[in-house]
Design a protein that fits this description.
One of its GO terms (cellular component) is mitochondrion. Belongs to the NDUFAF7 family. The chain has 418 residues and is α/β, with parallel strands linked by helices. It has 15 helices and 18 strands. The strands form three sheets. Strands 2, 3, 4, 5, 6, 7, 12, 16, 17 and 18 form a ten-stranded mixed beta sheet that branches. Bound molecules: S-adenosyl-L-homocysteine (SAH). The site of S-adenosyl-L-homocysteine (SAH) has 21 residues, from α4.
Length: 418
């Protein structure tokens, strides 16, 4: 099964693992007191020695959770077409970078590069390069194998680019730990199930005002963690709760905010677009923090480092953090986005081209996983950052009648077949 959408409930899996991360955290909590949920999540996921993504990063069927690109090649193909379509709408610049944040096993980029290869005649005069932002050494190895067949060079002298290679289709690929290290330039950014893995702060409304939820050691049970509330306001309660907030429980992911600010500044300055796909809401949900192990819900405080921890993306927060530097589109439901991108036609072609029953069944099954509102169709969303001039002519105010209409942005508008 895919990672369930929030609120799905269910029995969490019991503790396990070798306990190294738990012992490390327990020592830290005993020495210096409770930590924010964000700090706990960062340790559990990306601690350089013991973090879940650092050591394990279980994306895929044999891992802890499965994602859309792992379910069907069609998903990545349609995203590849989205980038080509935007590239064309923006006047076919002769160079662009494809930048993926948190590429997992590299499957999505692999499917996109296949589309770029199939459309080589369209892209023939364009200089394309791929830039992957990945903190996990384990996953970057898997990506290198998937995309280059293992033909990569570690780059110990160059601190910013830690690995380089050439894709099987001949496109240069570079690996970075941080989006800030990716060179500036006209770029298409992609973040699929990336923002949900970044650390969140959690806040609870109480009679005494907003309090931050913290993680502490349980005094009754050795080496067991528990949630507590901060006794007074913390700097985060001051900074992250909107004055007009009506919910009683709020999650905020400042790291996602900083990254969106960077993407928006880059797109404003150098052009391009960003496509974000994730489960999430538009500033309405409350407690969505959950863990996954072996495709089952897992208690977030149990055996840290052995399970994926995740929270829904708040798209209203991302929109606010773009600070008007770019236009934003969405969030739009995955099933609507993929339908607008022509998934039904693509499925028909693949069905016609496959003669054996097993392949046809697999195609129909994966279509259902991606599109069914009860599965991934409704809870996953697409959201885009685009330069303002992509949606409104810059001189529209002065001469509204003189401009030809701008082409609609694919995926966010209904597909019209001419
Ligand atoms: N996009 C992939 C993988 C999603 S899992 C897919 O949809 O299948 C999240 C990915 O983000 C993993 O590759 C993980 O190692 C990476 N990641 C998590 N935190 C990160 C951070 N702070 N910076 C860069 N990558 C990160």
């Amino acid at each position: 099964a895919a990672r369930l959408c929030s609120g799905a409930g269910g029995q969490a899996e019991a503790a396990g693992g070798d306990g190294a991360m738990l012992r490390h955290l327990a020592r830290k909590l005993r020495a210096s007191g409770p930590v924010t949920v964000a700090e706990y999540m960062r340790e559990a996921l990306t601690n350089p020695g013991q973090g879940y993504y650092t050591r394990r990063g279980g994306v895929g069927e044999s891992g802890d959770f499965i994602t859309s690109p792992e379910i069907s090649q069609v998903f990545g193909e349609l995203i590849g077409i989205w980038f080509i379509s935007e590239w064309m709408a923006m006047g076919k610049p002769n160079i662009f970078q494809l930048v993926e944040l948190g590429p997992g096993r590299g499957t999505l980029t692999e499917d996109i590069l296949r589309v770029f290869k199939q459309l080589a005649s369209v892209l023939s005069k364009c200089d394309v390069s791929v830039h992957l932002v990945e903190v996990s050494p384990k996953l970057s190895e898997i990506q290198a194998m998937m995309l280059t067949g293992g033909k990569v060079q570690p780059n110990p002298e160059e601190e910013l680019v830690y690995m380089k290679g050439i894709s099987k289709t001949g496109i240069p690929i570079s690996w970075y730990r941080d989006i800030q290290d990716v060179p500036p330039g006209y770029s298409f950014y992609l973040a699929h199930e990336f923002f949900d893995a970044l650390p969140i702060h959690k806040f609870q409304r109480t009679e005494k005002g907003w309090r931050e939820v913290l993680v502490d050691i349980d005094p009754e049970v050795p080496d067991q963690l528990r949630f507590v509330l901060s006794p007074s306001r913390t700097p985060a309660t001051q900074n992250f709760i909107q004055p007009e907030e009506t919910r009683d429980h709020v999650e905020v992911c400042p790291e996602a905010g900083v990254i969106v600010q960077r993407l928006a500044s880059r797109i404003e300055k150098d052009g391009g677009a960003a496509l974000v796909a994730d489960y999430g809401h538009d500033g309405t949900k409350t407690d969505t923090f959950r863990g996954f192990r072996n495709h089952k819900l897992h208690d977030v405080l149990s055996a840290p480092g052995t399970a994926d921890l995740t929270a829904d993306v708040d798209f209203s927060y991302l929109r606010r953090m773009a600070q008007g530097k770019t236009a934003t589109l969405g969030p739009i439901k995955q099933r609507e986005f993929l339908k607008n991108m022509g998934i039904d036609l693509r499925l028909q072609v693949l069905l016609q081209n496959s003669s054996d029953t097993a392949t046809r069944e697999q195609l129909l099954h994966s279509y259902d996983m991606l599109m069914n509102p009860e599965k991934m169709g409704d809870c996953f969303n697409f959201f885009a950052l685009l330069p303002h001039h992509r949606l409104v002519h810059p001189d529209k105010k002065d001469k509204p009648e003189s401009n030809s209409p701008l082409p609609p942005v694919a995926g966010f508008n209904e597909l019209l077949l001419k």
